[in-house]
Design a protein that fits this description.
This protein is α+β, with helices and mostly antiparallel strands. About 45% of the residues lie in helices and about 15% in strands. A hairpin with a 2-residue loop joins β5 and β6. The protein binds iron/sulfur cluster. The site of iron/sulfur cluster has 13 residues, from α1, α8 and α9.
Length: about 375
């Protein structure tokens, strides 16, 4: 059973999880949250690690930018109906016996006629001249991401980078239309202020929904076994050093002392004094200045050599250097790029995982 109805504005700030007469209700935007954290919320445990002012500002800025994304979509020819922020439509979907998921869709709409739905993307990819038959409204889930997360989403696709957002959109589709249609994830890069979108075909959106709701069913079983007991805690889904725990409002309750764990991991073996760090920074700055000046000299010399070659009308020539004769020549370099939007439309997430792999490296940046 699904329902959709206008709700009051404060429902935006409803808890991530609460007990109902029938079992458990989870906020749609918390579908991917740690099950123990959801249990703490449902049993009304006190928050031990409230978000700092910086995180709150980031969150509020993200929310405030959502209408900007909708306007940008309209300028690009989308037909979009955003939620009325004062009276958002509330959607409740029964995911399993004793488990409901409730949330508020950001927007619904259709892509511009020339492309957008999975069918239209396919038409574009394979050159099918038949116009897309898709005219139904789709759920549009609007997200804002920092540059790194935006790049990750674009490269890996939403099902790999943010599967909970796909499950959330699928939930709204079920609630609004009684069926899981294609869903659209529209994302704004808060760094460059550019936006992009991804259409997830209905069968894949439904799979994301089943995965997310299936994971929560264990919480319903836990409730059936223990009742709303704040002492009977479900297993932890993450470790203290994971970002989920580091941002969790119950970190100190769940893992006392965990707040410092991530920093502890990063501690160097040999202690470095502040004075040594300042000296290293000054040396770094001096080295950077020398590199910049050398790079500028190098660019000037290369430009002179290029003009010399052009003057002779050749692409390559031999020239005596200070210790040996060198070849000076124009070299062509070719770069290849991958259109991740097309790739994501073509391949299932599992196939993409074989093609687009992810490596994480760490480096120190001084800015
Ligand atoms: S601290 Fe980590 S494991 Fe514990 S409730 Fe929070 S997210 Fe879950």
């Amino acid at each position: 059973m699904t329902t959709s109805a206008p709700a009051s504005r404060d429902l935006y700030s409803r808890p991530a999880a609460l007990f109902t007469d029938d079992g458990l209700d989870i906020r749609a935007s918390s579908l991917g949250q740690c099950r123990r954290a959801l249990w703490y919320t449902a049993t009304e445990q006190p928050v031990t690690n409230p978000p700092d002012p910086g995180s709150m500002t980031l969150l509020e800025a993200g929310n405030a930018l959502e209408p900007v994304v909708v306007r940008a979509m309209r300028r690009d020819g989308w037909s979009v109906s955003p939620a009325d922020r004062d009276r958002p439509v509330s959607v409740t979907v029964v995911a399993a016996p004793g488990l409901t998921v409730t949330g508020h869709p950001d927007a619904t709409g259709c892509p511009p006629p020339a492309g957008g739905t999975a069918a239209a993307v396919e038409q574009f990819l394979f050159g099918d001249d038949e116009p897309s038959a898709q005219t139904d409204d789709l759920v549009i889930e609007v997200k804002t991401r920092g540059p790194e997360a935006f790049k990750r989403w674009r490269t890996l696709g939403a099902e790999r980078s943010h599967p909970e957002s796909v499950a959330q959109a699928a939930c709204y589709s079920l609630g609004l239309y009684g069926e899981c249609r294609d869903v659209v994830i529209a994302t704004l890069d808060t760094g460059s202020r550019s936006w992009d979108y991804e259409v997830i075909p209905a069968d894949r959106a439904e799979r994301a929904w089943r995965n997310a709701s299936g994971r929560l069913e264990t919480l319903v079983e836990h409730h059936a076994l223990n009742g709303p007991d704040p002492e009977a805690l479900p297993e932890r889904d993450f470790a203290a050093s994971d970002w989920q725990c580091q941002r969790c409002p119950f970190l100190n309750l769940c893992q006392p002392g965990g707040a410092g764990e991530a920093e502890d991991d990063a501690e160097p073996a040999e202690p470095v004094s502040d004075e040594q760090a300042r000296a290293a920074l000054r040396e770094y700055e001096q080295a950077q200045a020398r590199i910049k000046s050398l790079e500028s000299d190098k660019r000037g010399s290369l430009q002179t050599l290029q003009h010399w070659l052009q003057g002779r009308g050749v692409e390559k020539a031999r020239l005596d250097g200070s210790t040996k004769t060198r070849t000076v020549g124009i070299v062509q370099s070719r770069r290849y790029s991958v259109d991740h939007t097309r790739l994501n439309a073509l391949l299932e997430p599992e196939q993409r995982a074989e093609v687009v792999t992810e490596q994480v490296s760490e480096y120190l940046r001084v800015s």
